[in-house]
């Protein structure tokens, strides 16, 4: 059901579930596969994520020694944490099963494929999750072609709506 907003058990809309989205990812990459995974955070990082002080625009995933790491994710320091504050751009471990890591490691080893975070959100239980995607970079002419297709689809939808 695309276009409808999901509701939680209490009846409230789940719009605040998403903390941050990587809007450029779908423009600059062809998304081949995506997977939701957990992330290891400290207490002050979780507080900053709850305040929506996170950016994944320049972040990417990397597989090293059988573990997946998120590199370049910027989580702003939490102002109330005075003693135990965190480093904003440290590498953070992503939590995946061995089977998922193997699958992603094989995909990441292929030439032209990269691991891109698509969004940061909260699960139903309140845990911070990252949607990680295996993606292939687009060339400039592919981006232009895609924009033309999207514009054409949008114009057709508007024309159909205007006829009704």
Automatic annotation (TrEMBL):
Domain of life: Bacteria
An annotated Gene Ontology molecular function: RNA binding
Subcellular location: Cytoplasm
Keywords: Cytoplasm, RNA-binding
InterPro entries reported for this sequence: SmpB, SsrA-bd_prot, SsrA-bd_prot_CS
GO biological process: trans-translation; trans-translation-dependent protein tagging
GO CC, any one term: cytosol
Chain's role: Required for rescue of stalled ribosomes mediated by trans-translation. Binds to transfer-messenger RNA (tmRNA), required for stable association of tmRNA with ribosomes. tmRNA and SmpB together mimic tRNA shape, replacing the anticodon stem-loop with SmpB. tmRNA is encoded by the ssrA gene; the 2 termini fold to resemble tRNA(Ala) and it encodes a 'tag peptide', a short internal open reading frame. During trans-translation Ala-aminoacylated tmRNA acts like a tRNA, entering the A-site of stalled ribosomes, displacing the stalled mRNA.
Family: Belongs to the SmpB family.
Designated name of the protein: SsrA-binding protein
Organism annotation: Maioricimonas rarisocia
Name of the encoding gene: smpB
């Amino acid at each position: 059901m695309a276009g409808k907003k999901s509701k939680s058990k209490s009846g409230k809309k789940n719009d605040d579930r998403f903390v941050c989205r990587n809007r450029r990812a779908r423009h600059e990459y062809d998304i081949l596969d995506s997977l939701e995974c957990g992330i290891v955070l400290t207490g002050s990082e979780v507080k900053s994520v709850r305040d929506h002080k996170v950016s994944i625009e320049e972040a990417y995933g990397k597989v090293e020694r059988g573990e997946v790491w998120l590199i370049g994710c910027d989580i702003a320091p939490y102002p109330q944490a005075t003693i135990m504050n965190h480093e904003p751009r440290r590498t953070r471990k992503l939590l995946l099963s061995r089977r998922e890591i193997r699958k992603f490691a094989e995909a990441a080893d292929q030439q032209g494929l990269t691991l891109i975070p698509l969004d940061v959100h909260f699960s139903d239980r309140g845990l911070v999750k990252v949607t990680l995607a295996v993606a292939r970079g687009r060339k400039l002419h592919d981006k232009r072609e895609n924009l033309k297709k999207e514009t054409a689809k949008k114009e057709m939808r508007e024309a159909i709506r205007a006829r009704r």
